[in-house]
Amino acid sequence: MAQKTVTIVIDENGNSSIDLEGFADNSCTKVFDDFRGGDKVRTERKKASFYNATQTEKPASTGR
């Protein structure tokens, strides 16, 4: 089983970003939604590996 990593960064202005690595079959979408909660997504960028069927990674930035 691949290691899964969730990295959350909150800058000094209160802006946050979430980077997910090691998730397969788009399971990162559920994990992302769980961490995001009710916050609105300001910018979402998918890594090239998101479109790879064997491993999924999804970074996204949320604003406060």
Structure notes:
It is a single chain. The protein is built from 1 helix and 4 strands; from the N terminus they run ββαββ. It is mainly beta and 64 residues long. It has one domain (5-62). It has a 4-stranded antiparallel β-sheet with strand order 1-2-4-3, with helices on one face. The longest helix is centred in the middle third of the chain and has 9 residues, at 28-36.
Quick recap of the structure?
This protein is mostly beta strands. Helix content is 14%, strand content 39%. The protein has one domain.
Question: What key attributes describe this structure?
Answer:
64 residues; mainly beta; 39% strand
Q: Please report which band the strand proportion falls in: under 5%, 5-15%, 15-25%, 25-35%, 35-45% or over 45%.
A: 35-45%
Alpha-carbon Rg, integer? 12 Å
* Shape descriptor: globular
Structural class: mainly beta
β-strand number: 4
Summarize the helix and strand pattern as letters: EEHEE
Strand order of the largest sheet: 1-2-4-3
> Helical content, roughly?
10-25%
Low-confidence stretches: none
Number of helices: 1
Average pLDDT level? 79
Number of domains: 1
Termini, distance in Å?
A: 34 Å
Query: Largest sheet at a glance?
Result: 4 strands, antiparallel
